[in-house]
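sorry for the late reply, my laptop died twice this morning and i had to redo everyting from scratch. anyway the thing you sent over, i finally got around to it. pasting the sequence first so we're on the same page, its 264 residues, then the predicted structure underneath. double check i copied it right bc i was rushing
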Amino acid sequence: MAPPDFPPQLHEETSIDSQSKPISTVLIFIAMHTEALPLVQRFQLKEAADSVYPKGVPWVRYHGKYKNLQLNIVQPGKDPVLGVDSVGTISASLVTYASVLALKPDLIINAGTAGGFKAKGAAIGDVFLASEVAFHDRRIPIPVFDLYGVGLRQACSTSNITQELNLKTGRLSTGDSLDMSPHDEASINANEATIKDMEGAAVAYVADLLKVPVIFLKAVTDIVDGDKPTAEEFLQNLTAVTAALDETVAKVIDFINGKCISEL
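ok and here's the structure:
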């Protein structure tokens, strides 16, 4: 089904004061260590010695000061049994929720890689600033529950960032599979998505729940409607595209410094 009309912006309940005060604490959620490492090194962040998370979870936090900002990069870490990055919506929502409660950020940035659709103008290495996010694999064909399943949410308004950095924009669709089934494809088309990932809409749900502004920066590693196998193309381009993501996130952080939410 087609997504509903835009809901109220995620953060309309945010107080006028929080909209107009300079951003101080930024929470950057990144699912994969490979995606996070260049930013950790760029900003010279240190892994937190005293965890703000429950004992025994594999979640990781890097933190440090950059200009006027307190930066926190958080990751789900490695699966304790299989040793791979804990990608997907469940880890994303848990880590984001725990991090917001503990760190009380003024802004959340979900940065990472994504698949892109060439039919919508996406190319390998493009970095998109997502305008809206929705799920494509929560199909509940019951009135109203169907809208809940899609979970369409609008990101924080970032017209000034988009213009200043000349970033592409488009809708982001989220699901827990790297590949795309026919059912997923139909839902993604209904979502009118330009890019697809495995975490964004989950982060948006938590941000909406806790009323924290959130933006989404997604770099295209693979062309979903192209002629190459998704997994193969993703792995082939991951390193180079992560470098593009690193550069863009750094520019966004520099733009944010000294500004308030209403100036983004």
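Residues 6-14 have pLDDT under 50 and may be disordered.
thats about all i looked at so far, will dig more tmrw
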